[in-house]
Amino acid sequence: MASESLSFKGISEKGGPEESPDTKKAEVSTTETSGAAAVGGASELDLVFVIDNTGSMSSWINNVQENVQKIIHEIVVSESCDVRLGLVSYRDHPPQDHSFVTQKHDFTSNISEMQNWVDKMRAQGGGDMPEAVADGLYDALHLSYRPNSTKVVVVVADAPPHGLGCCSDGFPCGCPSGHDPLNIVREMGEKGITIYAVICGNFEGQAFFQGISQMTGGQYVPLTQAHLLTRAIVSGAQEEIALERLMGEAQEVVAEEERAAGRDLNEEEVTEKLEDMFKRKGTMTRQTRFGGAELPDYEPAAAHYAKAALLSELRSAPTRDHLAFGSHGKGIDDAPAMRSADMVSGFGTVTSHQCKRMARKSKARGRFY
After folding, report:
1. 14 contact partners, CB below 8 Å, separation of at least 6
2. Is 362 helix (H, G, I), strand (E, B) or coil?
3. Cα 344 to Cα 239: distance, rounded to the nearest angstrom
4. Which of 23, 130, 183, 256 is deepest in the core (most CB within 10 A)?
């Protein structure tokens, strides 16, 4: 893949690299997007990849290596935004793996540098089933995010963290570094960082990734086909930029409602207020759809992680509901009828699910309450 040294910022249809068919598709929606940009101002996107680099992840790592430039160009062209990318690779702690626990690369605006980082990833090692997910999240939290950027962390994983109570866990009491992933994710939510979890297949403890997405107002995408990863990242980033443009107005309206009520509104009440406001205004925004439908809502098991203060609470729980497998089999693309379905980012009226996610973001950030 050709190497480029230009900054992501300022790439345009005329000045950018040669257009691919997918980039041309992105130009179709530029007019509608620029209208949103006019309302919310110029966009900044800080996008982080947190990727499991153990032996079972080769097809997913290959997809990122082959498509990272396409991901960047499509987001820049469609959203006219200033994009920076960071990368955190993780494996496991010794004696499960002796190569590395994490490798962290702070944000860059240089395509060649990012391509070099991802090209060095290799799917090797591992050991027991759980991996150093908590360490990967910790590193992602401590990158140098810009204060006014849309902040998205895309976690690509096929195994849970240590300390959930899963079988074959070499560190059953949790991360050897002492990181509790629930604490880390709460801090991410407070900083306005949204998690998109791409779950590669189905496994015990899959609900953890649903839970951390829910805690930050993000989404989870269970997939079995690695080629869909590029579209999941691009569509998710586009939708997140669009929702961030709506957050300021949403916060003002709910703050007024709280002052009038003389109390804090709960998450369900916030969702209802947002639904009513956006419906009355006929607000349109980006939406990620697969096979014509929104991405799946969080399953009941995810709530265990949102409600628990620490992982130790879940390990000592009387049930193992928090270790549930996902209900979509190996992924939303696993059923024969969905094998050729596409993931797209289009425009539509703000949905109830999006209002619920914005309410969750606001709750996490503490700006309404």
Report:
1. none
2. helix
3. 11
4. 130
Question: Are 83 and 8 spatial neighbours (Cβ–Cβ below 8 Å)?
Answer: yes
Which residue in this structure is represented by tokens 């690369």?
105
At 279, the amino acid letter reads K
Give the separation between CA 295 and CA 45, rounded to whole angstroms.
22
According to the model, what pLDDT value does residue 367 have? Answer: 53
Q: Which long-range contacts (CB under 8 A, 24 or more apart) does 289-293 make?
A: 289/343, 289/344, 289/345, 289/346, 290/221, 290/332, 290/333, 290/338, 290/341, 290/342, 290/343, 290/344, 291/332, 291/338, 291/341, 291/342, 292/341
Q: Using alpha carbons, list the distances in angstroms from residue 42 to 83, 125, 297.
A: 11, 42, 30
Contacts of 309 (CB under 8 A, 6+ apart): 182
Q: 159, 52 in Cβ contact below 8 A?
A: yes
* CA pseudo-torsion sign 247, 144, 236, 224: negative
Q: Are 357 and 217 in contact (CB under 8 A)?
A: yes
CA distances from 51 to 22, 78, 158, 198, 344 (A): 24, 25, 10, 10, 23
pLDDT digits 0-9 by tens, 158-217:
999 999 999 889 999 999 999 999 999 999 999 999 999 999 999 999 999 999 999 999
Give tens-digit pLDDT for 333-350.
999 999 999 999 999 999
Q: Terminal CA-to-CA distance of the chain, rounded, Å?
A: 48
Stretch (H or E) spanning 65: helix 58-79
The CA angle 355-360-361, to the nearest 5 degrees, is 95
Comparing C-alpha atoms, which of 27, 108, 119, 114 is closest to residue 75? 27
Q: What is the pLDDT of residues 225-254, one digit of tens each?
A: 999 999 999 999 999 999 999 998 888 888
Measured CA to CA, the distance from residue 87 to residue 67 in angstroms comes to 15
Amino acid at residue number 311: L
Type of residue at 352: S
Q: How far apart are CA 157 and CA 87, in angstroms?
A: 14
For Cα atoms 160, 163, 164, give the angle at the middle one, nearest 5 degrees: 60
